[in-house]
Amino acid sequence: MKKWSLDEGNCSISYTLSAVGGRWKWLILYKLFQNKVLRYGEIKKNMPSITHKMLSQQLKELESENLINRKEYPQIPPKVEYSLTEKGESLIPILTLMSEWGAKNKPDASVND
Fold first, then answer.
1. CATH fold of 19-93, please?
2. Domain of life here (predicted)?
């Protein structure tokens, strides 16, 4: 995703969307909130339709925004764990509201039968 810049009028919404916009970032943050710490494979298992390339890219972008921690252990095979930073945890009230809104407004699956 294109990075936010001051050229966009110093708009807080533009910054927020550049930091956590897109299909996957909110879901990754929510999975980390639910589980506290996850390894790459565990995140992928919880999100089967995301590609490995996209997951890697999204994790790097979330880390660059200081929303998640990446802890690498010097061992073989490599072990990397992801968790929310304090800044990432500050998004949890928004995630909770989004979840509540989705529960109230998502289409009923039985309607499409």
1. Arc Repressor Mutant, subunit A (1.10.10)
2. Bacteria
Report the relative pairing of strands 37-39 and 79-84 from DSSP bridges.
antiparallel
- The whole-angstrom separation of Cα 81 and Cα 37 is 6
- Partners of 79 in beta bridges: 73
The token pair that represents 36 in the structure block: 């506290």
Q: What is the pLDDT along the chain (113 residues), one digit of tens a residue?
A: 455 455 555 788 888 888 888 889 999 999 999 999 999 999 999 999 999 999 999 999 999 999 999 999 999 988 999 999 999 999 999 999 999 999 999 888 666 55
Place of tokens 């909130």: 33
Could you state, in order of their start, the residue ranges of all structural domains in the chain? 19-93
Residues in the chain: 113
